[in-house]
Amino acid sequence: MQLDAPERPRAVRAKLRTATCLLLTAVAPRFAHAADPPAPPVPASPPTSQIDLTGLFYSERIRVLEPTMRYTRTYSSGRSFFGQVSVDSVTGASPNGTLPTGRTQTVTSASGRSRSVSANSIPTVNFSDTRIALDGEWQQPVKMFAFSLGGHFSHEKDYQSEGVTGRVAIDLNHKLTTLSLGGGYNNDVVSPVGGTSVGMAPYGELTGAASNPKHVKTALVGVSQVLSRKWLVGVSASLSSEDGYLTDPYKALSIIDATTGIPLAQVSEQRPDTRQRRSVQGDSVYHFTSNILYLSYRRYWDDWGIGSHTIDARYRLPVTSAAFVEPHVRFYTQTAADFYRFGLVQGAPLPQYATSDYRMAGLQSVTLGATIGFAPGGRRRTSEWTVRAEYVGQFGDSSPPGTVGVQTRIDLFPAVNVFSMVVNYRFNR
Questions:
Q1: What burial class does residue 206 get, using C-beta atoms within 10 Å of its C-beta: 0-12 exposed, 13-18 middle, 19+ buried?
Q2: Among 81, 96, 117, 203, which has the minimal tally of Cβ within 10 Å of its Cβ?
Q3: How far apart are CA 40 and CA 42, in angstroms?
Q4: Global confidence as pTM
Q5: How far is CA 273 from CA 54, 89, 147, 196, 290, in A?
Q6: What is the per-residue pLDDT across 78-91, written as a single tens digit (0 to 9) for each?
Q7: What is the fold, at CATH topology level, of the domain defined by 7-32+47-428?
Q8: Quick check: 145 and 168 in contact, CB under 8 A?
């Protein structure tokens, strides 16, 4: 559901696509040395094919099951193509943005599903959805350049996305330096179940629009440098511009009594119809005698007032010649959006924009996990398995400034605990 609980896996997928694009062009581990003699000519290798079968399981308040199949073809000329198809099945309960009342209440979703919520619990609504996505990319090397062009399509019951991406990488300084430039454009359509809500109006009041446009333009730039035969570093930056329908049609805010804190009414949230996102990321890959250390730092900020810092570290440890283990730790912190409110006080003028979506609040998260990989088959290894398991703990202010009455006694940002597992089987031929 657009910008609802499924926004978390959708946002994660978007971040992973961006990170993959940048890492493949800016910090791919090519361990070379400036003083190494030129390699002798290598006969053209025959075309190769690679098939990846991946299964993702994700669980918190929601549950996601996503099987993916990816086919990659690499030709003797260096050209390559990949195509990917994935299907998401998403079910669960998502916070609707309103506050606890201090007594049991019934909450109804846009699709008409109802559920009871206990006195001090954050109100949530049940939902289910299925998403189908297709991705593809063609890469063409031309002397010192590598060009790529890709496309994306996905559809779910209330959201459809179509997009194109392009990228060029330039090798300089005997291939010790790589510059990369890229961009993308997405044309999306948001079609809320039950209709489009009127922002900052009584919840349930509709505009009459069955669908709403959303456009996203992205630009990427990166540079990587081989410092030694063991050390590779990279810096990349991105700029994203969004316009159109950026509000979550399923989120509401509670209007509370100024003394008791008891919710009296609900209004639909409203967000600006434009957003500028910026980020800068630094990466380092260091190859010890046999182990590899990956480090990255990312600074993000936007014109909604959200700023974040992310530190990510992975350390690959070979167990045997055909197996490895890779522990992973990640720290993340963000500031709240300028228009984030836990609720609105009765009698006060309504702001132009407001949301109580906890993902727009100030928060912190810690990720702990590990990947295990192994390649069966002895010397003639044509396949490999990887299994990644991670736990994410997300925390925020349980009693934000301005709480009154019953709200001071309730945890308004209960910790979110996330577990995910990804299993991948890769076959080469």
A1: middle
A2: 81
A3: 6
A4: 0.86
A5: 36, 29, 33, 14, 50
A6: 999 999 999 999 99
A7: Porin (2.40.160)
A8: yes
